[in-house]
Structures
1.
Amino acid sequence: MSGRGRIFPNLCNLKLTRQIQNYPGAMNSGVNLKELAAELKLSPSTVSRALNDSYEISAETKKKVISMAEKLNYQPNPFARSLRENKSKTIAVVIPERINNFFAQVIDGIEHITQQHGYHLLVYNTHEDVDKEKKIISLLLNGRADAIVMSVSSQTSDVSHLERLHERGVPLIFFDRICSGIPTTKFITNDYESTFEGTRHLLQQGCKKIAFLMLSKELSITKERLRGYQDAIREAGLESESCLNITCCQNEEKNIELIRDLLLSENRPDGILASVEKLALATYQAVKRTNLRMPDDLKIISFSNMNIAGLLNPSLTTITQPAFTIGEECAKLLIRKLTRPKQPDLLNQVITVPSKITIRSSTVAG
Amino acid sequence: MSGRGRIFPNLCNLKLTRQIQNYPGAMNSGVNLKELAAELKLSPSTVSRALNDSYEISAETKKKVISMAEKLNYQPNPFARSLRENKSKTIAVVIPERINNFFAQVIDGIEHITQQHGYHLLVYNTHEDVDKEKKIISLLLNGRADAIVMSVSSQTSDVSHLERLHERGVPLIFFDRICSGIPTTKFITNDYESTFEGTRHLLQQGCKKIAFLMLSKELSITKERLRGYQDAIREAGLESESCLNITCCQNEEKNIELIRDLLLSENRPDGILASVEKLALATYQAVKRTNLRMPDDLKIISFSNMNIAGLLNPSLTTITQPAFTIGEECAKLLIRKLTRPKQPDLLNQVITVPSKITIRSSTVAG
DNA sequence: TTGTAAGCGTTATCAA
DNA sequence: TTGATAACGCTTACAA
């Protein structure tokens, strides 16, 4: 079926060179090691070694080889190399959502480090769907990526696919939404402390009844953040019944309606802690459908990496994760693991990078 | 500032790993075609053909092979395959900015299509930097990706690197920020008409002096959008001198100051058309540093794919590009090109997908 | 219908 | 210091 991809009939290498020189910029593709070697009247192995700066090759030869390689625009075939060396120079990033500042920043952080080391980034979006996540993971079982950085979907409770991946020996790092059952390194923010502080802040601002908005109880971040919230409520001496845990879904409109109903209910909250950004935004939308005013009738604080939290009305008090740094740290660790020959496995540990709370109008009485 | 967080070592790491390795079903990784064939007492070629559903293989053999492949968890080595077939099943996406709803949506659209066809996505962020763009493109010269979808950086004026890529025969599609000099297919929105309409809308709302905010004059979108704006101004019978073209930069704070100075100047505009979202946001920030009120003193319309344009204060009138669709269309075209054996080259054409204007409070007198 | 063998472009081993 | 050769895992003529 698919014909051999050779573009030039391999007639004579000198001719090839002339062609290249005669048509500057025209189809100077497909020079491989063998052809480059022929042009230099050297063996492929010598040329390979020269290009890889082997100690066995004389400086003079190296110079000649490199200059000819540049002249002919030689580019090593990455697949031949991957096949031979059993590594892809590629890292896979698996996230639940692409239209999300937090994840975008993390990926920027990862790329910032990996690019310096010649790694490429495959990016996959699970759309918060476990089935998609499983498919994606199964695609990564065959060595296409040297390592994986991921944040699990909110649907993920069965983690057998991740266990399998890990057991295969693929270096795997979790960030934000982690899988504590998988013995590897995880990067998170200080979820407990942040929500504890955030809740306390709401209480200090006079809130008597605070609702906690979450995506899914399965999520590691939900659990930790919920804990921080509950402990702060308890610490304030409020009864446990004043805890109001609202589980939202993936459908934005439904979430808005759910929150609106909550806000119109008898026993409505006067404070909200949104455990993820999108639920804060849904709350803003919901409030617009009521007569409530923020922050007077309702105060809100949310995890968020929006750059425009200050432009919302009222401006949003945020718990901001150091997303870029988290990405960088994940990448640094992986690079270390991948580039040292006999590096031990990634430690089963959780590394915490603290978030920063920025108080804005949404929690401060006008 | 963001110091290293606490580390919580988990003690039983080593033990756990060993346990896993002792599990009978675990670590069945690395089963290759040869081993699978040996297990089946068949030749590798037969197994390969069976797995690829070749007509030459009996139904019975196929069944046996497939079931054994599943049992042993056989995963073909993608690099061996890529090397052999001279294709990577990978598409590269090159964008100038990752923390950007428009580009994120486009990538989601691309992924939506390519995933169905078994393609993987390498994503690269140029950070609006031509030099980075050139480096990235040079990395894609060696066949690592079967095709490239890209939007150029705002610094890109010399396009020799893109010409070279195209001449190498790598299928290349531009979207949004295109290179008209490269004879391939481009997807854009109706930039001219949208800005024409947008400007007219501002004029209808009573604006007498409208400023046009742009990133770089080199950008294709800048040129087209500027044209639409200028023509609308002229059509309204205003002098050309009432055109106010403001070239912004990559530094957000500088942009805010630039716009604030503009708003405080003698001859300040009463309307703004922001050719990209970030400049609209910079304008909102700038306005906060003045005593001006929107929309009364200043009306603004902007290209934007923010989902929360309605939550800004005032809510932002937007020109929204069909980003997801654009991504899908790029991908569909590429898939067609890549999967048909002798598909002709991508046509040198510009395909336009219309944007949608949503009028909100930022342009409607209170 | 199945098997044998060549080859994709590298790198590594061994020999010269 | 350099060259010949094998090997990575797969697909596909060609043979049987």
2.
Amino acid sequence: MSTHTHDHHSALDIAKNGMPKDELLFDLADLFKIFGDTTRMKILFSLFEEELCVREITDLLGMTQSAISHQLKVLKDSRLIGNRREGKTIIYFLADDHVRSIVGQGYEHITEGMHHDENV
Amino acid sequence: MSTHTHDHHSALDIAKNGMPKDELLFDLADLFKIFGDTTRMKILFSLFEEELCVREITDLLGMTQSAISHQLKVLKDSRLIGNRREGKTIIYFLADDHVRSIVGQGYEHITEGMHHDENV
DNA sequence: CTTTCATATGAACCTCTATTCATATATTAG
DNA sequence: CTAATATATGAATAGAGGTTCATATGAAAG
């Protein structure tokens, strides 16, 4: 499927190689769409600290169990989180460190803007 | 609750200090929402290479000038891009390197996933 | 088995947002 | 001044996505 010649190219190479295929752009936008929702962001922040079952996340966010489950599915489909069963409960956890990296970069962008003046 | 002993100082500390204020979460989600659109992602990729005026971006993406201008405004309001006037044309450019970092992390997450089995 | 607890899921509803269309603003040329 | 070019913007439309409601699935207890 992929005819690329990269083994592990730094992320910045995407800039040098011109416009990537539409499919990649679509996938990228799709990934960031996941982060672009307050509920999902709260879930991710919750899981930054520790693994949690659905009930715990539901209580933490003060939302309905259904809404949480729906968003957990979205997050899991994007492989940002994983889960395992323990008896009747299901435990969710962060899948990898990209979540922390991505959110961290976003955090920096936002907080840096706070020190500057708005010259628009 | 928190039984972790991690000790990094960086933006990732946000993970340790518990759930941040709702306002920050909202701002973060809002920032990522910007990246969660194919048109805006294409614009950003275009600007990875070089500064471009509105007409050039419009031609590159093959969309209407109005649609592009609307999205350029969204990107500029989020301070992801900047612009300057040169005669009648207005040149747009990336505002800082957070854009590259954030998109790069997302790119890595996606491409790494390609080596694994796809279970959706 | 049936019941209870924990989570998942499909459908409907509603809000949000990206595009289009028409028009406005700004700069330069004549 | 008017005309032409380049970009911006407001309103309306249409589609996507998040929450709710009702229900289904799955595991353990009685």
